[in-house]
Design goal:
- It is a single chain.
- By secondary structure, this protein is an alpha+beta fold.
- Among the domains are: about 5-135, Dna Ligase, domain 1 (2-Layer Sandwich), CATH 3.30.1490; about 140-245, ATP-grasp fold, B domain (D-amino Acid Aminotransferase, Chain A, domain 1, 2-Layer Sandwich); about 475-590, no CATH class; about 645-690, no CATH class; about 720-820, Phosphohistidine domain (Glucose Oxidase, domain 1).
- The protein has 29 helices and 22 strands.
- An eight-stranded mixed β-sheet has the order 15-22-21-17-18-19-20-16. It has a six-stranded antiparallel β-sheet with strand order 8-7-6-5-9-10. A four-stranded antiparallel β-sheet has the order 1-4-2-3.
- The protein starts with 10 loop residues before the first helix and ends with a strand.
Length: about 800
């Protein structure tokens, strides 16, 4: 049945997708020609498909898109997106098989689950099949005629190179445009990782966007309702290959999300993404420049590190959504099956204990053939683990070499191109330098083995492991706090410095002149030499470092002067005693045989685990130290761009991607255009600033989850639950801080409550009596530092910064995993 011959009465036989294509084509829209195999076509008719006269009207080398067209599919109520089969670039002699496969997809488990979840009857099982001429797409994508996030009456266009299948399935990061329906003005344009075809690096020119925008507006007017449209461009014109009603309005997202959260995870439900471990080191919104660079660097680093352990069909390891970076949890689940580890251990380590389902506690192994294919990469990673100490020494030497090269010249004496070349040199070598981070973060296998041993003996894992991690050598981040407390102690012996610090209003803007010639200032400068590269969300080089604004450290010193001197030695002695006591209690549970066999192995694993936590903090500190010196290169360019009038403010430079910076340096005529790019990016950041992004999501659910946000935080009556990351308990008032820039609100002896923490919070840890964070797991900064300071700490206390208020008195029972407000 040809598209031109389909009538409204045929809808029940040809299905929603084919009917929509026919309706558009008959209305004069550019839809590739096609025939439809009706749902009631007998097997004999399908067998005659290869001889259909329509095929003879096409060139012999024509290929086809074979798509399902189920009854009710692509309707206003049910999209069936990704549920039924689609085959692209099918040759004529393969059409029969492709059609049969599409028809059989109605009986797949995911199709049955979809119908059951939406209470669709068995009448809806019938599938028609659309056989459509393939368009040789240069560019393709998806467009909404209403903003699916905000509900704004505007066009949202996603575009990528080639066929749109990779874009629809989430395997590439597309360009995204927001276009006014009224006059075709491009409201915003964000280049993904696929674009480079136009001067601004995107896939569609202004003229093409205008043409597509007019076409999309006509389609919406034709249907009289917002549409979700798949399109492609063959280099000469646009083609519409699919149009369906938008199946969820912004008003319905919140109710839809409650049912999504109640569903058990299902195979094929979409790639899972998490940002729990990233939220503590990356700002809620990174600068567009750093975000694009990190996404590229981290994906190159992960691809090299993981090799065949990564499944290409699951997409990249890192991806940004609405300006936030996410890690591919589906890839991590796959790796768990390859090593035979239960996904629950990985979820706990990342800080997602609430997402653990019973099946996640069961270790399942990948097929032997799949494991053997990955064996060379397993052996390589095992060699990294065995050589970890040697790799650390090599990393330290490489860090010194990199810093020496960057600091060999004052960037102010270099040309723009020399600065650009130095920045590009570091961007190119960074993925190799980042490998050591992955080595030191790989603790799940070791933690799983220790947990199994504790379960076998019947001893609490947390009591054994947490006490050993807290005792002994300190991480560089904890040492920063210890050195700061020592600075505070030294001030007590210097009256002039003591008077200044105690009487200051907390701004410390004149500290250098006021403290000139004091011993304290000399010691403080040595402190900044060691730790001045640390800072708030220090991975983003757009954000100033501690050496640029040392007020938080001076404030912490000031607060220590108000009370009794901290006795860190007593804390360390208590931690050593707790660790020794835990070992004795553990050994008392062992049989004689276990003391000979299990105990030595377990001691070695715990020593190595402790080292990895320390090395991990050092590696992060070292990489951030490089950024301190690289930032000077960026600031030099930023100042020059302001002087030339290319941008309005220094910070606007960080709104511009590095490839755009490079093109302006190579061709100064493009320089004035940077102001428009910066303005557009600033508008995008402002539009996305208040979005409440989920910590864990399936990509297909993003639109609903973003719009729904966290919902009502509640009154906080009763107990708040969390994950114990450092044992102990304390009764105190809380200070709620959403950002370390609010340091002046901290009180000595209070419980610090924050969304997450990074090393810039370290001075505040020296003042706190306990820590509560909304995200994080065993690997998080808050966990490591709280354990080493001997502070009781809970992670994953949902909505803690909303429910708790500064001044509330609570009992923090970290060992019991709860917070009780008086």
């Amino acid at each position: 049945m040809r598209l031109d011959a389909i009538t409204p009465g045929d809808l029940a036989r040809v299905g929603g997708k084919a009917f929509n294509c026919a309706r558009l084509k008959q209305a004069g829209f550019p839809v590739p020609d096609a025939i439809v195999v009706p749902s009631d076509a007998p097997d004999a008719a399908i067998q005659r498909l290869a001889g259909d006269p329509w095929l003879d009207t096409l060139p012999a080398d024509t290929t086809f898109a074979v798509r399902s067209s189920g009854i009710g599919e692509d309707s206003a109520g049910h999209s069936f997106a990704g549920i039924h089969e689609t085959h692209l670039n099918v040759e004529r002699n393969q059409l029969l098989e492709a059609v049969l496969v599409c028809r059989r997809s109605a009986e797949s488990e995911q199709a049955r689950a979809y119908r059951q979840a939406r209470q669709l009857g068995e009448d809806d099982v019938r599938i028609a099949v659309l056989v459509q001429r393939m368009v040789p797409a240069v560019t393709s994508g998806v467009a909404f005629t209403i903003n699916p996030i905000t509900g704004a009456d505007e066009l949202v266009v996603n575009a990528g190179r080639g066929l749109g299948e990779a874009l629809v399935s989430g395997l590439i990061d597309p360009d995204e445009f927001r276009v006014s329906k009224r006059d075709g003005t491009v409201l915003s344009a964000r280049a993904g990782t696929t674009g480079n075809g136009t001067p601004d690096g995107t896939t569609l020119s202004a003229a093409q966007l205008a043409s597509l925008g007019a076409l999309l507006t006509r389609i919406e007017q034709h249907y009289g309702a917002p549409q979700d449209v798949e399109w492609c461009h063959d280099g000469e014109q646009f083609w519409i290959v699919q149009s369906r009603p938008v199946t969820a309005s912004p008003e319905s997202f919140k109710s839809e999300v409650s049912s999504l959260k109640s569903e058990e995870p299902t195979t094929g439900a979409g790639t899972e993404w998490t940002r729990a471990n990233l939220a503590e080191v990356l700002p809620e919104q990174m600068s567009p420049q750093a975000l694009a660079a990190y996404e590229d660097m981290l994906n190159r680093a992960q691809a090299k590190f993981m090799g065949r352990l990564m499944a290409p069909e699951l997409g990249p390891m890192m991806k940004s959504f609405r300006g936030r970076m996410y890690m591919n949890l589906s890839q991590m689940r796959r790796i768990a099956t390859l090593i035979g580890s239960p996904p629950a251990d990985m979820l706990r380590s990342l800080g997602h204990p609430e997402q653990i389902h019973p099946q996640d506690e069961i270790a399942t192994r990948a097929p032997l053939r799949e494991f053997l294919a990955c064996l060379p990469d397993f052996l390589r990673l095992l060699s990294y683990d065995v050589r970890a100490e040697a790799l650390m020494r090599r990393h330290e030497a490489k860090t010194r070499e990199t810093i020496a090269r960057i600091t060999a010249s004052d960037p102010r004496t270099l040309s723009d191109r020399q600065i650009r070349d130095t920045i590009q040199w570091w961007i190119q070598i960074a993925p190799d330098d980042i490998q050591i981070v992955f080595v030191m973060t790989g603790v799940v296998t070791r933690e799983t083995a220790i947990r199994k041993a504790c379960d076998q003996v019947g001893f609490p894992y947390e009591r054994l492991v947490y006490t050993q991690l807290a005792a002994g050598k300190r991480s560089v981040s904890t040492q920063q706090g210890i050195d700061l407390v020592a600075l505070a102690a030294s001030v007590r012996h210097e009256a002039r410095a003591m008077k200044y610090l105690l009487e200051n209003d907390g701004t410390f803007t004149d500290f250098r002149t006021a403290l000139a010639g004091t011993t304290f200032l000399e010691r403080f400068d040595r402190f900044l030499d060691l730790y001045g590269h640390r800072g708030r969300y220090e991975s983003d080089w757009a954000i100033p470092r501690l050496h640029e604004n040392p007020a938080p450290a001076l404030f912490a010193i000031q607060q220590h002067l108000h009370g009794r001197q901290s006795d860190l030695k007593a804390v360390a002695e208590r931690q050593e005693a707790d660790a020794a006591g835990a070992w004795r209690a553990f050994e008392a549970r062992l049989t004689t045989w276990q003391r000979w066999t299990m105990l030595p192995v377990l001691r070695g694993m715990l020593r190595r685990l402790k080292k990895q936590y320390i090395w991990r903090e050092q590696v992060r500190s070292d990489l951030t130290r490089i950024l301190r010196y690289a930032r000077a290169y960026h600031l030099t360019l930023a100042d020059r761009f302001v002087e030339r009038g290319w941008i309005d403010r220094r910070d606007d430079y960080f709104l511009i991607r590095l490839d755009e910076v490079g093109r302006a340096i190579d061709d100064p005529q493009l320089g004035p255009g940077l102001r428009e790019i910066a303005g557009r990016r600033a508008a995008e950041l402002a539009a996305e600033r208040d979005l409440e992004m989920p910590m864990l999501m399936r990509e297909a659910d993003l639109a609903a989850l973003v719009h729904a946000g966290h919902g009502d935080a509640g009154t906080g009556d009763g107990e708040l639950k969390g994950l114990c990351v450092s044992p102990g308990s304390v009764d105190a008032e809380v200070v709620v801080m959403r950002d370390p820039s609010e340091f002046a609100t901290m009180k000595r002896g209070a419980i610090l409550v924050a969304p997450a923490t990074d090393p810039s919070w370290t001075p505040l840890f020296t003042l706190a009596s306990g820590v509560i964070v909304e995200v994080g797991g065993m690997l998080s900064h808050a966990s490591t530092i709280a354990r080493e300071y001997g502070l009781p700490a809970l992670a994953n206390v949902k909505n803690a910064t909303r429910i708790l208020k500064t001044g509330d008195r609570v009992r923090l029972d970290a060992s019991g995993g709860r917070v009780t407000r008086y």
